[in-house]
Amino acid sequence: MDHDIMTPQSRSLPFRRTRLGLALLPFLGVSLAATAADSLDTILISAPAPVEEPSVVSVTQEETTAPKADLADVLREISGVTAGRMSGHGLDPIIRGQREHQLNVLLDGAGIANACPNRMDPPTSFGNLAGYDEVEVRKGVATLTRGPGGSGGSIELKRNTFERAAESGIQSRFDFGTSSNGLTDQTSADVLVSDERMFGRVIGQIANGDNYEDGDGNEVPSSYKQRSGTVIAGYRVSDETGIEVSADRNRMLDTRYAGAGMDSVYDNATIYRIDGRVGDLSGPVDNLRLEISRANVDHLMDNFSLRELTAPMPMEAPAESHTSTARLTLESNPGDLKLSYGLDFERIEQDALARNAMTEMLAFRQWPDGQSDQFGAFVEGDWAIGDADGLRVGARIDRFESEIDTSLDKSIATNMMVPAAIRESAGETKSDTEASALLRYTHRFDRNLSGDVGLSRTAVAPNLTQRYVLTGGLDKVGNPDLAPEIHHQLDAGLTWQTDRQSARATVFLDEVTDFILQDQGGINGLPAHSTSYRNVDARLYGAELELRHAVTDWLSAHGQLAYTRGRNTDDSRNLPQIPPLSGTVGLLAEYADFDGGVDLRWADRATDLDVDSGLDTRETAGYGVVDLHAGYRISANWQLRAGVENLFDRTYSEHVNRAYVGTFGDPTARINEPGRTVWARLTARF
């Protein structure tokens, strides 16, 4: 079996292993698409077959990747995608300059919300590549059927258990990885048993990480322990009809954070999910699918268990989140039209407080038992217009509501230090109804050239942090009167493909009404030192370019480039935390069972700042980092991979990383990335 990959740590066949070659697989023909579909246990970064979604990138897990502590660190390899680092684990992904709840994240169909108000645990931190068959990343708005918002894009972690269970017998994968800097060991096992009808699957992972060192040899607090397990069972009536249930448990223990005033003692997530589908129906509805999930997260952070106490008193902050989701999707296929429509619901409950760890005296409530509800209806149609054209039209309407428990003391609604207007507004239930729409057209000019253009309107409701957060001394105070963000986006792309070359160019523009900006300087009637939120008009725009050239049958060259710019047009200011111009160039060679390559990752100096936000502190230097990777297929069942990241031990940081807290470094500096790291991974498949 061939192994397709995209990350610079590992490659496979000369063409399919390049970043661009994989991103453009749908334009290579049906045979390659079929091969990718059959390779369920590989790591693959490629666009899926439908030409109407060229901005979709797929990542599947196998041994051909360097061991990573966090999924978002792998997603950084996709053009236009980066992630902010606060530690070795829990990187927060960013797509085309948008982040947090501007991105939709689903774990095998289940929604999950962070339990830490400081986002030590973004949703992607609860998933790992070993536990999923595929991670599907959408850049921009490609569909309206998987939830509201998603103005920046979506990240959906998928398991193909139901589809793989069509094959009778045992399918298994075992993996062990290690590195010299940070990740000490990462072991996983995945076993699926099926008789083509009944099936069961068990997945487990154990990972441990030490503090890593940057290029100057400075230790960055980042150690962690992770224990995760999944049990799946189901029954197949046919390829289109059946039921699947699953339970996931992910435990993060003793996680240190260089970019926070506290560390995480534990962050435990439990996800329950049921997925039922009925297909091949007679009548107007062809297929029906119902997905229901519940995700519970318990979190405890403090400033003394994993670090020397430097604050005036020991503090601890217990927190929890509960996310309930339901989605009913129906499909009809009249003629050349594929129609998807249905209903979805999500409820997020978050509660967090801070207290003196010695006296248990309450200091403040960050989330005073907050609740946000979303109920939506959607319809989306795909038309195949001849052999060369495709059209997608979608619409949805959503009702958003949020509220907190106003009986709880020391919250944004009851703390007398908070201005009266904010307290009064926080005590009221907030509700909004918003509509979204999508129009996407694709055209194949000839066998080598195709193009696509998309228009969309999407609404992103304020989250509970932006509306209701409160920290001590009014350092951060929410704004209950925030309006939803309304994004009007245009994106267009061209794809060129020949036998030896491929290229993909994309441009995008997002005009945002009521962009939710974190800001300082006495806004909303608060003291000058307070951080809060306000609505402004904003503009995001940028471009992405991916290139590949097969030099010979065994050597190929590849490159990619991404640029994003963000402006607060109300105040003629930059938007904060926008990544600078960046890219990758590399060479890949393969002969028989051996392969190897070199990549240069680089970024320009970040100079477009918004220091008033409190998120940007100073300019971030540009960098260039060289990575090496090699692999050997020992047998049909065993494979060994190894490599070196940051070969020349450069000291550098991503501009979107958090700033150090004063305890661990310069609080105006971004957290540095790891220095030279030697890694190895051994994988067995049976």
Please give a structural write-up.
This protein starts with 18 loop residues before the first helix and ends with a strand. The chain is built from six helices and 33 strands. It has a 22-stranded antiparallel β-barrel. It has a five-stranded mixed sheet with strand order 1-2-7-8-6. It has one domain (168-685): Beta Barrel (Maltoporin, Chain A). With 686 residues, the chain is mainly beta.
Structural class: mainly beta
The major beta sheet can be summarized as: 22 strands, antiparallel, barrel
Mean pLDDT comes to 90
If you compute it from the alpha carbons, what radius of gyration comes out, rounded to the nearest whole angstrom?
24 Å
**Distinct helical segment count:** 6
- From the N-terminal CA to the C-terminal CA, the straight-line distance is 12 Å
- The assembly state of the depicted protein chains is single chain
Corresponding CATH superfamily: TonB-dependent receptor, beta-barrel domain
Work out the helicity level.
Answer: under 10%
The number of strands is 33
CATH class: Mainly Beta
Approximate strand percentage:
over 45%
CATH architecture: Beta Barrel
Which spans have pLDDT < 50 for at least 5 consecutive residues?
1-51
